[in-house]
Structure formats: structure tokens, C-alpha cells
Write a structure and sequence with these properties.
The chain is globular. Helices cover 34% and strands 22% of the residues. It contains five helices and four strands.
């Protein structure tokens, strides 16, 4: 499994990332640790997970991450408000399956309850 996520940072900016382990990545973003820690997140701490998509393969997730990162902020906000529209918004990705995960928060991701670890 691979996850593409958008988080709202403490300055209101939106950050898009990709990971195989969402819980670990969020912990890294919050404490600035890990070799895969994004440089941007050192000065822009995440305060909210706004959208997450799950897909079977990391390479497919990377295509979605790249497409989202190319969007302007207003377009990202539209996508956040309708996460099911990902394949209609990006026709080149329509052959892939992206499952929007609802109900995931920073808190339930970090404590493992969203993924049934606790």
C-alpha cells in the first residue's frame, strides 16, 4: 500500500506527500526526524490531515503526488473538498484506483487507532 496525503500546516499552507507508512511519516513531520523527512516540514508543522488516498503501488501514488503538487492552491482546495474526483481531475490517471480515506485525523493516525493498531 502507498498513501498520498495533503496536510494543512501551521501557517495555513498545504503540503502534499507520499509514503508507505502514514503513521511513521506524520511522526517524522512533527518531530523533524527520519531520513525521509521533508525539508519543507521543518519550518511548517502539520496541524491537520485534510485528505488521504490509498493505492496499491508506490509508483502509482507517486504519479498522483506529482499531479497534485503541480496544482495551484485553489485547485488543491477543490480537490480536498471532493477527493473522489481525483481521476476526473487527472484523466491521465483514470486507469488507476485511488481510494480516498475519510475520517483520518492527525491524532488517530499518530496513535494508531485509524489503522487498527490500538
Amino acid at each position: 500500500m502507498a498513501y498520498v496525503y495533503i496536510v494543512r500546516c501551521d501557517d495555513g499552507s498545504l503540503y502534499t506527500g507520499i509514503t508507505n507508512d502514514l503513521e511513521k511519516r506524520m511522526k517524522n513531520h512533527l518531530d523533524g526526524s527520519g531520513t525521509s523527512h521533508a525539508k519543507y516540514m521543518r519550518s511548517h508543522k502539520p496541524i491537520e490531515i485534510v485528505t488521504v488516498w490509498r493505492t496499491e503501488h508506490y509508483k502509482v501514488a507517486a504519479k498522483l503526488e506529482y499531479a497534485i503538487k503541480r496544482l495551484k492552491r485553489a485547485e488543491k482546495i477543490k480537490l480536498i473538498s471532493n477527493p473522489d474526483s481525483v481521476t476526473s481531475r487527472f484523466p491521465a490517471l483514470c486507469e488507476y484506483v485511488f481510494e480516498p480515506l475519510s475520517g483520518i485525523t492527525l491524532e488517530n493516525c499518530l496513535d494508531g487507532t485509524f489503522f487498527g493498531k490500538k
